[in-house]
Amino acid sequence: MAYDKFTVLKSTAVPLPAENVDTDQIIPARFLKATEREGFGDNLFRDWRYDVEGNPKKDFVLNDPTYSGKILVAGKNFGSGSSREHAVWAIYDYGFRCVVSSFFADIFKNNCLNIGVLPVTVSPGFAEKLFDAIEANPSTEIEVNLPEQKIKLLATGESEPFDINEYKKDNMQNGFDDIDYLLNMSAEIDAFEASK
Amino acid sequence: MEKKTLFDKVWDAHVVKSVSQGPDVFFIDKHFIHEVTSPVAFLNLEKRGIGVKYPERTIATPDHNVPTVAQDQTIKDKLSRMQVERLRENCKRYGIELHDLGSAHHGIVHVIGPELGVTQPGMTIVCGDSHTSTHGAFGAIAFGIGTSEVEMVLATQCIMQSKPKKMRISVDGELGNGVTSKDIILYIISKISAAGATGYFVEYAGSAIRNLSMEARMTICNMSIEMGARGGFIAPDETTYNYLKGKRYSPKGEAWDQAVEYWNSLQTDQGAVFDKEYTYDAADIEPMITYGTNPGMGIKVKGTIPSLDGMEGSNKKSYLKSLDYMGFQPGEAVKGKLVDYVFVGSCTNGRIEDIRSVAQFVKGRRKADNITAWIVPGSREVEKMAHEEGLVKILEEAGFELRQPGCSACLAMNDDKIPAGKYAVSTSNRNFEGRQGPGARTMLASPLTVAAVAVTGRITDPREVFNN
Asked: Given A77, A83, A84, which is nearest B195 (Cβ)?
């Protein structure tokens, strides 16, 4: 369904340098029982965020008031495993609009693009710079510029370009989703199906 | 003529249109749905005021979230019940074939698709589940999708996909005794890593793959996602046709002959180029087990957990976090460690051959006292065969608890959870933190290794029990 348009996002960021964070960590399976897309943010990183009694774990970054923002800077191979889109719903619902990593799992990345969370792939070196900058100063701001396809550390001005295909870029900037596009192709799809 | 890979042939035949500077509009032949990743898709269709374009191309079954006991009664868990009821309502409303709880072909979606003959060579198949790659065993391009894409398929029978790169993984030679297809795939993932095939679609080839049964091939293709691949498949051959012949939805009569003729063309051309190739020797593969919290962290059962040599920074931190979760030390052996649970089941190893191999192994033996042993057939059909073949009796005499079909402890959405801190050796596909229940410690292995562990109560190389 339609989502907020994404153009330029300037925000502080939350660092999560752990590698191979799978979607079972982002949202454990036992929280997938809903029949509507509501409230998933409450269970984002549930088992890293809360102990068995439901008390916040102090050492987890989402419970640390030092860090906040609409950008999640994650370690490499983020979003591996299950195809559950609920993982991205949880990220979106929590308030993130952009995830930055040096390496994303495929299905996760697609899911992000489909619901309006911008996945930004940066070089491992730039990811390190981001982690270092956030650690040194948690209120440091990052600018993610989709029209220019550029991510910038505002404090130092260091930046790096990122890739996104024109079609998805256009969708993100306008808040369109793929169904809008596909529904307009109905006749072509019918002809294709008939030829099978 | 241009040399094409099997992947190119099947992919290209399903492109309705290539979007300039964008993905392909990709046509889906068959779509499987289940209760967990479909309700929001149906809800969105309703919000948009549109319906299901080709309901005959979608097949449904509840599997992820269903109890594995008392399936003939109302589901106790309210949320699970609501999801299953919603699936029933949606199937009824839109005219989608449903294999409901208790019906003859109920089961895990990736087990019943092949059983029914829905899955066929050359098809494109998707499902809101990453283990959809299982269907690749038949030479189909099959992969997992998110709920937005489930909605797209329901609404238009298409999704927008960029074509992945191509990888071929060949395994040649003869497998040793006690080595199964699960060991092959755990071995491959341990070599390539949990992210090593991200961005690729894999073709499995080589004599060791060719010699596998269809069910063993499904186990391999099933875990393609565990190295990050979009999917993985195997070119169809006589083994494939023998499996499919006579299945409910397989072509019949003249249509069968025509289908086989087409399926025979589904091979990678000699000289076609892959973006990446790996070749392994089957003789190097031994029974495998995982020791960490992603499926790439696998070793020989008789091996030792890698030391910290050469690791630094976030890599080392992540590694130590993982071992800490598992309660293991770098450099130590896993063999001989005490285990609490064994689980036989899932879309990876919940088929009849898996249950046969466990039953054959434990026949006349008994599980160790420290072990709780669960065996969950992948489908009603598998369950029925297990009864008819006397396997259930053997397993129950050995102290295994047989449950009813479903995804069960593979992802522990229902009550089949491994308690916190306990060790489970499991035939499933993921050893992520908390995958089998909060705090549960999962070690992935073959059904044969799991049977050996059940009998000894400890991490055991199945070949050593054989020899005794």
From this structure: A77
